[in-house]
Task: inverse folding
């Protein structure tokens, strides 16, 4: 779940947002986000090796977050704290048995 750090420290509240595709009559679509919940989060920077090796076509890993399980969370969702926005690149629920999910994140605008 959190590796050598031990138990997760849910020390901040962040807004979890789900993507909503809005279809227009002219065939165009917009992607908007809808608040799903305010949740407690253990947010931490990705290690330098994760930042260097985590690069993919759709994002670079900048942070990891541990949250309590929440249905439907997947790549494309967001975590928001004030002016900071973190895009969910992937979800690992390997720790679900321990009551947690890990989100692999990219901070937008960085």
Result:
């Amino acid at each position: 779940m959190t590796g050598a750090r031990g138990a997760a420290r849910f020390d901040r509240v962040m807004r979890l947002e789900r993507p909503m595709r809005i279809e227009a009559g002219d065939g165009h679509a917009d992607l908007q986000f809808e608040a799903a919940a305010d949740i407690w989060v253990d947010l931490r920077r990705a290690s330098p090796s994760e930042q260097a090796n985590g690069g993919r076509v759709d994002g670079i890993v900048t942070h990891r977050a541990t949250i309590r399980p929440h249905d439907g969370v997947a790549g494309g969702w967001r975590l928001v704290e004030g002016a900071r926005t973190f895009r969910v690149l992937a979800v690992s629920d390997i720790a679900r048995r321990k009551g947690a999910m890990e989100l692999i994140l990219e901070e937008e605008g960085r």
User: Anything to note?
Assistant: The chain has one helix and six strands. The radius of gyration is 15 Å.
